[in-house]
Structure formats: structure tokens, C-alpha cells
Amino acid sequence: MICYATHTLSEYLESLAAHEPVPGGGSAAALSAAMGASLLVMSMRYSIGKGKSKVIDQRFEKAMVSAEQARALFLTMISSDAQAYLDVVSARKSGDKAVLRVANREAAKVPVQLIKVCKVQLKQIPFLKKEANRYLISDVIAAEIFLTAGLKAAQAMVEANQ
Fold it and tell me: Is 109 within 8 Å of 35 (Cβ atoms)?
């Protein structure tokens, strides 16, 4: 089983650039989404207790838990997407069309889940743009860009695996 979670960023990027089937676009989509979720968490950590109401702070805390869970899930998806694609490559080599259909269907599950989780996290952006620490609004915007990039790249992977 592939595990990129313990690779350095440099090692991962070297693998991404290599003449190897994985990691590829789906894995990179998960990395992008993980960066977005990480920026959400950071912006909320800097926003809690900064003079907003207790209700706003509670909403930050709830949203932060969600973003932390998303970040952890995205981190696992970096590897699980690569493994799913290796299974597709193996199925292609087998020449068995039924096995390939199953492998393609399984490979689409990771980006489908990534899309769903990105959409949930993107729903937090308007609240954060309004209520987050004003010095971190550019980080919130960067989070939105990374989550959107992850979502769009994942959509391309789903289409490729149909």
C-alpha cells in the first residue's frame, strides 16, 4: 500500500514529476484540498478569541473541527487515490474488461469523496471572509482557491474514470 503521508514535500513533488503512473492528478487534487483545509484551520485558530462574540467563536470551533477532519481525510486520499490508480493499471494489464470496470469504478470513489468534502469546506468561506481575523482574509481566499482546485481536479479524475 502506498503512503505519501510520511514523505517530505520535496520527495512527494519528485514522485509527482517522475515518469511513473503515480502519484498523479487525483493525488495532487487531494494535496491541494489538504492545503486549503489547513489554511482554514489556521485562519480559525487565529480568529478564535479575538473579540468576536461567543456564538461566533463557537461557530469557528465547530468549523475548525470539520476542517481538521477534512484535512486528515485529504491527507489519506493523497495515497488512496494513487493506490486506486495502480489497481486500474494492473486491471488494464490483466486484459479482463470486467476487472477493469470494477477498478475504474473503485478509482472514481476517491475523487467523488474528495469533491463532496471540498464542497462542505467551501461552504465555510463566506462566514470566514466576514468573521475571520482581518489579517487572515488572504489566507481564507487562498484556502478557497486550493479547495476549488482540488474539487475541479477531482472532477476531471471522475470523468476520466467513467
Answer: no
